[in-house]
Amino acid sequence: MNTTEIFLIAMAIIFTLPWLIWRVGRTDYHAPLVVVQIVTGILLGPGVLGRFWPDAYAFVFNPAVVQSLNGIAWWAVMLFVMIAGVELDLRQAWVHRRESSITAGLALGTPLAFGCLTAGLMLLHDGWIGPRAMAWQFVVGIGMACAVTALPILILLMEKLAILRQPIGQRILRYASLDDIAIWGVLALILMDWVRVGGHRVVRSGTDGPVAPACAAGRHADLLPEHRPAHQLDARR
């Protein structure tokens, strides 16, 4: 089978299997469709399917298929970011700005702080962070994972409770929408290419800030004394 056929098989599995589990198993009361999709995605990953059925995983989710799926996933994430906070009623948020900012800030900041604290403890042991990641990215990333608002699940839950259109439901949605907007800003800071941002800076002796980007150090290495020709050093003396 060629890559296109295998890709269509993978897409059919990803879209139909969670729906069949949700529909046939009637899990809507205990687990909405979005929860079933998340759990199924984990089970289809390398940690479960790839470990217990490696041949099936290698056939369906081969590198070419995974690359195509990643392209769709990137586009989906960009669309998701674009619609972040679309449920927010800006007029009501401005009228209740003090209450909304305090409550949403605490709802975001408390789990974020505890998540960062947990990540700091995890860093005391090796094996938690990748070779190219920075410690602060890992800490803030774990904090963000603990603080992120599961907005689709929240909306489904409030629909089940018949409070989505009620004042209490709109208030909860307002807080969650503000958190949803803020958490994407946190993710943008984590994923920002800090080496490229700081690459234009000239490395000076001990005055370049707390973290000197590696590319800046390499690009301006000739400015350091040990890399200057001897006649330039003599001239400065």
From TrEMBL:
One cellular-component annotation, GO: membrane
UniProt entry keywords in alphabetical sequence: Ion transport, Membrane, Transmembrane, Transmembrane helix, Transport
GO molecular function, a single term: antiporter activity
All copies of domain Cation/H+ exchanger transmembrane, residue ranges: 13-191
Membrane topology: Multi-pass membrane protein
Domain of life per record: Bacteria
Membrane-spanning intervals of the chain: 6-22, 34-52, 72-90, 102-124, 136-157
Cell location: Membrane
A GO biological-process term: proton transmembrane transport
Family matches, as Pfam families: Na_H_Exchanger
PANTHER family in alphabetical order: CATION/H + ANTIPORTER, K(+)_H(+) ANTIPORTER 1
The protein, known as: Transporter, monovalent cation:proton antiporter-2 (CPA2) family
